[in-house]
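Re: that chain you flagged

S.,

Sorry for the slow reply, it's been a week of failed gels. I finally had a moment to sit down with the sequence you sent. For the record, here it is as I used it:
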Amino acid sequence: MTTPTNLPPTDPTPANTAPTDTPRTNTPLTNTPRQSASNGHTKQAATGSLIGLALGDALGFPTEFKNVPTILSSYGPWRALELPRPAIVTDDTQMTLALGRGLRTAMDRGLLGPQRMEHAVRPEFVEWYHSPENNRAPGRTCMVACRLLDGERPWQEASQVGSKGCGANMRVAPIGLVPGLSEEQRAGAAQLQSALTHGHPTALAASDLTARAVHLLAQGADPMALTGLLRSYALENRTTYHERWLGDLWTRAQDPSPEHFIARGWDECLEILARLAEAVRSVNEETDPCLATGEGWIAEEAFATGLLCFLMFPDEPVTALRRAAVTSGDSDSIACLAGAFAGAHLGAGCWPAAWADRIEYRSELVGLGALWDA
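Prediction finished late last night. Pasting the structure tokens below so you have them in one place:
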């Protein structure tokens, strides 16, 4: 995304000035110990994930479309990258909130299912499309599809089946954070929210994987085991087409069967998971992560590169965000996803108050997080 001219200007810390809002990476970010749901306590994973994704989004907003040498010359060492002032987010966070509001409405009405979810999320996406705050250079696919969703046509006719842009999964974290969903509900809902705009099978599979990763981390999964768990999940679901949630979407493509359609998406995700597994073993912290797993403009690469940045620094969330923001690709979406993973893993207490307290849309992010952490 390019920075809109009508936004308040950001004021990042100059390259020769020490950051003031965050501790050094070897300083504890919270005095609250991590606690798991299994011992009767909560780490506030939902709040942590939502705040983290917004912080990553804001941190990566000014660096998107810049190569790494340009970013370093403008902002100084990547480990000292400062949150801009004001901490303005992009459509990544805006659409995450739209999805979150829709999920809240749908689940207030009863058990989450495809019709109930569509009827709640679809109008939120349309409202975002018309909002005067939708001025953060949103992606073309989201804009085209949301314009088509503003009417009575079946949502499948609005879905862009040729698009697998990262708009599909930059916003999916709430699906992984909502408590009480079955695996079928979580997978179906993750794929449906993607399909409302991005109907390519890889967009569906990458959204499913992203929500799965957030869910596993929120439940206490070991980050170092995560890539293997996700690979197993992808293999198990490779030919599972969620017809109850997706209807006849597959017929809009050129595939001979729904199983063939969805397998195309999972196969691309399995390829990127293999690259991710190799990168986790061999990546240099000082090298642009995009060189290992892609620049993140497409859904599976945004998932993998965001996850790689988190896995490089699983217990240093601010460092993970900074690494994700100083990349040559879709920096805001990569950092957004890295923040969602880190916050789900470590909880709300991992983010410096000096950052979290001034992020745009903070009250709504905290409100949704509190609902799902309860």
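What I noticed first: DSSP finds 18 helices and no strands in the chain.

Talk soon,
D.
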